[in-house]
Specification:
The chain has 9 helices and 6 strands; from the N terminus they run βαααααβαβαβαββα. The chain is globular, with a radius of gyration of 17 Å. It has 2 domains: 139 residues, HAD superfamily/HAD-like (Rossmann fold, 3-Layer(aba) Sandwich), CATH 3.40.50; 67 residues, DNA polymerase, domain 1, CATH 1.10.150.240. α1 crosses α4 and α3 crosses α4. It has a 6-stranded parallel sheet with strand order 3-2-1-4-5-6, sandwiched between helices. By secondary structure, it is of the alpha/beta class. The chain binds 6-O-phosphono-beta-D-glucopyranose and magnesium ion. 6-O-phosphono-beta-D-glucopyranose (BG6) binds next to α3.
Length: 218
């Protein structure tokens, strides 16, 4: 029986995925690197450092660790400018209502995000209090598709992996959920329909009981 809900952040709770893209695009333009929306799919759910290394691989480039660090810091500065004005209006449709309903029904709620900016973003969205547990990029050493971010979330909720379900918009995140023995619901990104156990376009008017019955295959 599902007792815990593990939410990814970027692209699931809020449409920050577009700001990650714009920040990487701006950095790549400065460096004269190719980077388009298809390339960006490979970065969804992936840590900052790994993302830049993927960009380097796509452009047949090599850099020292120091340079990688330097450009990742620069990308984050660009990203922070984009999210500086983030407001509650950018919470994706139905998310707050769905989470509030889940809380009423005593589901444990955890964040499982690769982002080191998770706390800042949740605070800006006034969503921090919705979570019993927050596991983010500052708390894990292994990035998705490693399941660490979700296994830690389940552990801190006091639940077994099979009692949790993950909401994800990235292939890396869905593979991470499966690697951790959890079912994954794909959200907002049609690119993940072939990977997830169940797909929803959005949380709008989503009935949690109906969804859980579908996910549990009853
Ligand atoms: C994930 C995003 O949630 O967080 C990735 O999908 C991003 O695109 C990663 O690279 C790390 O985020 P941050 O905020 O720590 O750079
Ligand atoms: Mg995401």
């Amino acid at each position: 029986m599902i007792k815990g809900l593990l939410f990814d952040l970027d692209g699931v709770i809020v449409d920050t995925a577009k700001y990650h893209f714009l920040a990487w695009k701006s950095l790549c333009d400065q460096l004269g690197f190719k980077f388009d929306l298809a390339d960006n799919e490979l970065l969804k759910g992936v840590s900052r450092i790994r993302s830049f290394n993927i960009i380097l691989e796509l452009n047949n480039q090599k850099m020292s660790e120091e340079e990688v660090e330097k450009y990742c810091t620069l990308k984050n500065e660009l990203y922070l400018k984009y999210i500086n004005n983030l407001t509650e209006d950018e919470i994706l449709p139905g998310v707050r209502e769905f989470m509030a309903d889940a809380r009423k029904r005593n589901y444990g709620i955890a964040l499982g995000s690769a982002s080191k900016n998770s706390r800042l973003i949740l605070d800006k969205l006034h969503l921090t209090d919705m979570f019993d547990v927050i596991i983010d990029g500052n708390k894990v050493s292994n990035a998705k598709p490693d399941p660490e971010v979700f296994t830690k979330g389940a552990e801190e909720l006091g639940l077994k992996a099979e009692e949790c379900v993950v909401f994800e918009d990235s292939v890396a995140g869905i593979v991470a959920a499966h690697n951790g023995n959890m079912k994954a619901i794909g959200v907002t990104n049609p690119e993940v329909t072939d990977y997830c156990d169940y797909y929803i376009k959005s949380f709008l008017n989503l009935n949690i009981d109906v969804l859980m019955r579908k996910v549990e295959g009853e």
